[in-house]
Design goal:
The protein is mostly beta strands and 226 residues long. It contains 1 helix and 17 strands. The longest helix is centred in the first third of the chain and has 6 residues. The radius of gyration is 18 Å and the shape is globular. The C terminus is likely disordered. Pfam families: AIM24. InterPro entries: AIM24, AIM24_sf, Trp_RNA-bd_attenuator-like_dom. This is AIM24 family protein.
């Protein structure tokens, strides 16, 4: 390989899911260990891998994705290496190890098909601009890949009565055991003629984490994919 490109070659496989750089996901595919991934996210693959867009099991579970709050999924199966990406967004890989996570569906890139998952209504808040009433809860033993518009921060909410406030458009994922409620406050941007003068936040309390991306613009995250 030409030396100027040598640093971009795939690294040896060390895990089911891992990053290739910060903007691409590499998945080691094996027969019987299927993957559910965002439709249109495949950028390359090696070996023999088949794709089934929106399979019946997904349609049944994701029937609540009736607006832009959700993302169509495809089932990937076979043997080889699969590379996924989402418009150059950062990719965050998580090994759940029996835990659970609630994910904003627009930030969900891929997850092991054997995981338990479902679409649930977010309790404790009304519908905010840019953030729907539904989230995707995933649990079990397996891998999940999320996207973030820029390098995210993981906030440990701790415990007690203190709350962590997040802009809905910057929210990526959170621990499902956290309590969630909405808050409306004055928006300083209205002083220079922008916005309605109100800002909305999601308030989290309890023991767990919240993943926040450094972006509040959800426009490109809601584009329809082919």
């Amino acid at each position: 390989m030409n030396q100027p490109l040598a640093g971009y070659a795939p690294a040896p496989v060390t895990a089911r899911m891992e990053n290739h750089g910060s903007h691409m996901l590499k998945v080691a595919m094996q027969t019987g260990n299927d993957l559910l991934a965002r439709v249109g996210s495949m950028v390359a693959y090696e070996g023999f891998i088949q794709y089934e867009p929106n399979p019946p099991a997904v349609r049944q579970i994701a029937r609540d994705w009736i607006t832009a709050e959700g993302a169509p999924l495809m089932k990937c199966s076979g043997d080889g290496l699969l590379y996924l990406a989402d418009y150059g967004a950062d990719v965050v890989v998580i090994n759940l190890g029996g835990d659970a996570i609630s994910v904003n569906a627009t930030n969900l890139l891929a997850f092991d098909a054997n995981l338990q998952w479902g679409v649930e209504r977010v309790k404790g808040l009304a519908k905010f601009a840019g953030q729907g009433l539904w989230n995707t809860k995933i649990s079990g033993q397996g891998w999940v890949a999320l996207t973030s518009r820029g390098k995210p921060i993981v906030v440990d909410c701790g415990s007690g009565e203190d709350e962590t406030y997040v802009d809905p458009d910057a929210l990526v994922a959170w621990s499902p055991n956290l309590k969630v409620k909405g808050k409306r406050s004055f928006k300083a941007q209205s002083l220079i003629g922008r916005g309605s003068g109100e800002a909305y936040q999601m308030a989290f309390s309890g023991q767990g984490i919240v993943v926040v991306q450094p972006s509040e613009d959800s426009t490109d995250r809601l584009r329809i994919r082919g």
